[in-house]
């Protein structure tokens, strides 16, 4: 609860610093504030409380995911200073919107009431609409903002309709009463229609096939830092919220619901990977890779009572790898028209450190050992096998092999030919973020028990 | 004393709001003018508001009506952002026809 308040206050503080003309201090102050909140949040570990009539709950699940979101936002805020150099007079807006986005994300995982969930969802989405269109002079950014806005509000309206039907069935927004209703035999049919609509809306938000069409376009058009936000933070938030919702909503519809999840997971993995093979824009490749990773993460929803640590591990592995990759992509594609893969030619030879980080990040996403991406996939497949979803595991492994194809194409380009990037001094913060993210990734890869234990 | 809700039944409200919601969905899918698409989204959200209020009366529970306030505030924020995006698009291409936004594909 205090985490949420602290984050919201931090966002307001950002805007106040702008008013008092202290723009230079915004990024450092926010970074320190986020770090302090992170320490506080982790120190809460072990508590299990609820606040304000069960509006917000604090338990292991919410603390774990909140900490992950704060770390990701910290990386994004650090990158902001250099990324928005040309529009430095607006830096307060960009940073504070990211902080409010984080507040929405935390509300989305720590809700104890559907009202809180809906507010969190909308705070997150509206912040992302703004960020996607945050380069008003570029038509691509406008188009991305418009597309994301239309798709996102459509999904939000569907979720809202679902929440209204669930409310109509049981007369309460409280998740504990929803949980009881979803396990009782006398629940009205509206409840199941509502639960299905909420699921459809959430699948839109995590960009799972067949609700994925907006993702590549929006990822490509949005400014690179926004794409990084969407593909790491927003995706992880949405999947964690969907996981938590599943625990409360799908009690009686277990079998039908599992079939749906298996089909969507297989489709997401396969379609995402196959579409990524023929892309030449790095942002689009990462967008499709995000779609296929959404498929892998959906596997963990098959048993919401046991798989929370597995999902948490997977989200850290995916988000840190994505963050490290984007730190490099943002640097290489700065001041360039597009993010064509050719911009990366020879970059690895010119700058071995960042080249190695991008390579490591892509290997982690592809699932090569010592990077946590491998163990994340391993745990997920292991648990799917224990629950006898053999088909799912077969498709998952086949897809891991396909995915290697396009990850290695980027790595190959990275270390071949002459560099096309101008050789100049790289701001230290790119190293900091890239190395920090990959260090977390490798760290939990070597010691998975930190997370799963 | 019979309330109006008991007289006409909760189902009628459900059908009406489902109908409004579908009008919104089809408007969003079929129309190509950005402003009309916005109005369609608003219809979808307001259809839900109607349903929430009806259920709130049905259950004799105020939570539903409070939720409507949240959802109205959210809808207003959404439209503010959306209109800003439309203005940016209009400045760039001089039109708000969404069919002209075709730069991103592949």
Overview of this structure, please?
The complex is a heterodimer of chains A (453) and B (106). Helices cover 76% and strands 1% of the residues of chain A. Chain A is mostly helical. Chain A has a domain at 266-453. The model of chain A has no long low-confidence stretch (mean pLDDT 91). Chain B has a single domain (9-94), classed as Helix Hairpins (Orthogonal Bundle). Chain B has 4 helices and no strands. Chain B has helices at 4-8, 10-30, 34-59, 63-93. In chain B, 30% of the residues are buried. The A-B interface holds A 114-115, 118-119, 122, 126, 129-130, 133, 136-137, 139-140, 142-147, 149-150, 153-154, 156-157, 160-161, 163-165, 167-168, 171-173, 190, 216-218, 220-221, 279, 281, 284 and B 10, 14, 17, 21, 24-25, 28, 34, 37, 41, 44-45, 47-48, 51-52, 55, 58-59, 61, 63-64, 66-67, 70-71, 74, 77-78, 81-82, 84-86, 88-89, 91-93, 98, 101, 103-106.
Topology, please?
The complex is a heterodimer of chains A (453) and B (106).
Chain A: H1 2-19, H2 23-43, E1 49-51, E2 56-58, H3 60-83, H4 91-109, H5 114-132, H6 139-170, H7 175-183, H8 189-206, H9 214-221, H10 224-249, H11 254-277, H12 282-299, H13 308-332, H14 347-350, H15 352-366, H16 372-386, H17 390-414, H18 428-446, H19 449-452
Antiparallel strand pairs in A: 1-2
Chain B: H1 4-8, H2 10-30, H3 34-59, H4 63-93
